[in-house]
Design brief:
This protein is an alpha+beta fold and 229 residues long. It is built from six helices and 18 strands. It has a single domain, classed as Fumarylacetoacetase-like, C-terminal domain (Fumarylacetoacetate hydrolase, domain 2), CATH 3.90.850. It has a six-stranded mixed beta sheet with strand order 4-3-15-8-9-12. It has a five-stranded mixed beta sheet with strand order 6-18-17-13-14, with no helix packed on it. It is globular, with a radius of gyration of 17 Å. It starts with 14 loop residues before the first strand and ends with a strand. The chain binds manganese (II) ion (MN).
Length: 229
Amino acid sequence: MSEMGYVIAPPPVVAVPVAGGGLFPVRRVYCIGRNYAAHALEMGGDPSREPPFFFQKNPDDLDPSGSFPYPKHAQTVHHEVELAVALARGGNDIPVEQALSCVFGYAVAIDMTCRDLQDEAKRLGRPWEIAKAFPRSAPIGPIVPASRIGHPSKGAITLAVDGMLKQSGDLAQMIWKVPEIIAVLSRYVTLAGGDVILTGTPSGVGPVVRGQIMEAAIEGVGRLRVEVV
Ligand code: MN
């Protein structure tokens, strides 16, 4: 290996399949907290339009495999169905009116959360990473290009466990809409093509156990079936 070469093998590029063919290479994964009023209330929060807050998952936490390995270290792992936004380009201080022009497409994702560890982190004022950014913590379906489906701003967003409907909301219930999320986030970080943003979950989050099947769906985007293993 040359003097300027990598000293170990570079990690593989993380990629999510695109509906219709191709792979979307992932750069970063951002998530917004409490973006549906009913979920903010069920988590003991304020459903008003207080400024949004963000956290991150790791790119390789995204998992298109259709199975979710239950983390050994967790007691209570919750599902949070979310609309994922995949960016084709980014920037800083993106105006709301231009934000949708940055979007490549959309996917159904589940922000799997170790709720016991998150509750402990909240109580102790610690970061959330250990509860949110663990391996394969973000099952995701194929990314559907906006050129095919447009930019969904309303439509049912649901999650069922073993056929029982647990989460049922509408994209129109988002406190901060997709263009606003992109605009606000771009004030704090430089967004770029390859970034994926999870846009928050409606109410009805709850635990899963091994052997259960989660079926998530977003009207106009698609469906995602994930087995907890
Ligand atoms: Mn979430």
